[in-house]
Specification:
alpha/beta; TIM Barrel; binds flavin mononucleotide; 13 strands; globular; two-stranded antiparallel ribbon
């Protein structure tokens, strides 16, 4: 019998060949300015290409900014101009040629924009321009040492919705099969959801209905652009880990039910990122219980993520009905062909690209085969 990890999943016009997802991971490796600003380059082609050879069902390309001011750092990928679209095609073509569905995470960093990239020290990095002031629902900084953002006015909110819609259209032009809207980790859309960062008194703040309005409007605008055949994922932080003051697991269940009715296909269930000093009980599969609740109580298909590393652990999550997809991030950095590793471990059918076929003899027979 096929392991649940290797069963296909059909979502609208796209069939994922298995349940393994490479989660979005910022590489902070694009040009920070100039004509190729934000465009995938040799690093991205290598990095994503080698993971595509392991044939996960879906690769979700890292947080990709819908506007220049919405980048986390100056080195983020972007999809706000046509030159970037052409460069993204290098990735999606390779994914398609290797049977991997191409996903992209569309993002606006909100009050966390204009940051230095994490692996540069204070020197030797391009510091964000002094006039790059982040925007947010309210003028509340993420942490005392972070910039105070400018609160978006009505026109600014309209602009953000248009930017997500335009980015989704470009993503389709670039060949992406799946659009993920980034509403997690303390970036702009999450900031609107959470009362910790949203203190507005207009239609976008206060009540639950008002705080979820922007995520819903962005979702609708994206759907409008991409038609009915392309799945939409929404990544959320299911809790701020400061309940009840922040965004809560109950809120996430309510939001997921509303997103299901709006035609969202998968809620990708992460946590945290909006409260600098939140205490997070990190451990194997620590976010899976949130995925389980959303799946069971909102009737929404989910992707689970967070310290899922072992093939058996991944199988158990699917078998228990706690998620429909298993996303891995850091494990893919350690083992680019994790799906192959998992299949070999579970005794499942697998195959490599024809160029690598001769390695299969070694892998399958564990023998000293003639070269
Ligand atoms: C280097 C790195 C970059 C990341 N960038 C993103 C990102 O662009 N978007 C996002 O939603 N999460 C991002 N994450 C979070 C991962 O997608 C994932 O949720 C998290 O690492 C937990 O999964 P893991 O235990 O399998 O690594 C990043 C994580 C890492 C390690």
């Amino acid at each position: 019998m096929t392991s649940p990890l290797f069963r296909p999943l059909a979502l609208r016009g796209v069939t994922l060949s298995n349940r393994i997802v490479m989660a979005p991971m910022c590489q902070y490796s694009a040009e920070p300015d100039g004509p190729d600003v934000g465009a995938p380059n040799d690093w991205h082609v290598q990095h994503y290409g080698s993971r595509a050879l392991g044939r996960p069902g879906l690769i979700i390309v890292e947080a990709t900014a819908v506007s220049a001011e919405g980048r986390i750092s100056a080195y983020d990928l972007g999809i706000w101009n046509d030159r970037q679209v052409a460069a993204h095609r290098r990735l999606t073509r390779f994914f398609r040629d290797n049977g991997v569905a191409a996903g992209i995470q569309l993002a606006h960093a909100g009050r966390k924009a204009s940051s230095p990239r994490p692996f540069d020290g204070p020197f030797g990095s391009v510091e964000p321009a002094a006039d790059w002031q982040p925007v947010a629902p309210s003028a509340v900084a993420f942490a005392p040492d972070k910039q105070v953002p400018r609160a978006l006015d009505r026109a600014g909110i309209e602009e953000v919705i248009k930017q997500f819609a335009a980015a989704a259209r470009r993503a389709r032009e670039a060949g992406y099969d799946v659009i993920e809207i980034h509403a997690a980790h303390g970036y702009l859309l999450h900031e609107f959801l959470s009362p910790v960062s949203n203190t507005r008194t207009d239609d976008y703040g206060g009540s639950f209905e008002n705080r979820v309005r922007l995520v819903e409007q962005v979702t609708d605008a994206v759907r409008q652009e991409i038609g009915e055949q392309t799945p939409i994922f929404v990544r959320i932080s299911a809790t701020d880990w400061v309940e009840p003051a922040g965004w809560t697991a109950d809120d996430s269940v309510r939001l997921a039910a509303r997103l299901r009715r709006r035609g969202v296909d998968i809620v990708h269930v992460s946590t945290g990122g909006n409260v600098a000093d939140a205490r997070i009980p990190v451990g194997p599969g620590y976010q899976v219980p949130f995925s389980r609740r959303i799946r069971q109580e909102a009737g929404m298909l989910t992707a689970a993520v967070g310290l899922i590393r072992d093939p058996e652990q991944a199988e158990e999550i699917l078998d228990a009905g706690d998620a429909d997809l298993i996303a891995l991030a850091r494990e893919f950095l350690l083992d680019p062909v994790w799906p192959v590793t998992a299949a070999r471990h579970l005794g499942e059918e697998w195959s490599l690209a024809p160029q690598y076929e001769r390695a299969e003899v070694l892998a399958r027979r564990d023998a000293r085969a003639p070269v």
